[in-house]
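User: Second chain of the day. Same drill as before.
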Amino acid sequence: MKGNIIKLKGLFSRPLTGKKVARLGILLVIFIILGYCAISIFYALFYTTVLNRSLGQESPASYGLPFEEVTFPSDAPDNLVLRGWWVPNPEARQALIMVHGQNQNRTSLLPLAKGLWASGYSLLFFDLRGHGLSGGDHHTFGYFEQWDVVGAADFVRGKGFGASSIGAIGWSMGGPATIMAMSQSNNIKAAVSDSGYANLRPLHHHELLYPGILLASRLFRGYDPEQIQPGQAITKLGSRHLFLIHGEQDTLIPVSEFEELKKLGGSNVTESWLVAGAGHISSFNKDPEEYLRRVRAFFRVELQ
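Assistant: Same format as last time:
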């Protein structure tokens, strides 16, 4: 035992040569690069994967509303199959598309259903790609989801509603997806964006990892986060209008994103509401009656 200790002491007491230092340096650099790549890939895959896709027990029937199960294709190149609920109102002349956020599904906006349906709207609730029962195994923070919303608008057009009679309500990621969809299609006349963002990049809290996540997203998810620019899309809406809503206490999407959308939107943003005491997509829960009153008033003016 004593002899072994002496040998080990001798091993560590030998001076490191220049070649050994260089080799250790190279190994350390390789280890750091591999670690950076692995962590970047993990974040790119993890943050675009919805772990729980169950719809639960709630449906429009829970609110006493008639509905039918529907499917339609996304307008993206992959034509992914999207699934949802069509809630027809026989007296409706307008229709609203309900667009949920990240890690949610079509049930998220159901609390709005009764009040909007009773106001004379037919409603489409659907799951974005990678969520709920729709196709796909991941989402893209709005990059492809904008085309899912375009596909939803095409579906509503097929139900006999004119483009000037179709509106949309998007929560969180659903807001930016809807704004970008409006810049791609004229089939949505007006929209409410609740807790949306103008640019995805400031929301990445891992600035050092961002270049790696960016590359991993392009390679492994097939989308470019740099192209998710609702703030640019909002300048391409022509004469169509938006109503922006944001919680004053939102810690996920900062209020600065709301202000940036307002600034970039200019005259396209005809209504805005910064809700005191509300967090991320909690403005409806904060004051349901006022929320529905403002949303109904907005669409009453905008839709024909």
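Confidence is low (pLDDT under 50) at residues 5-12.

User: Great, on to the next one.
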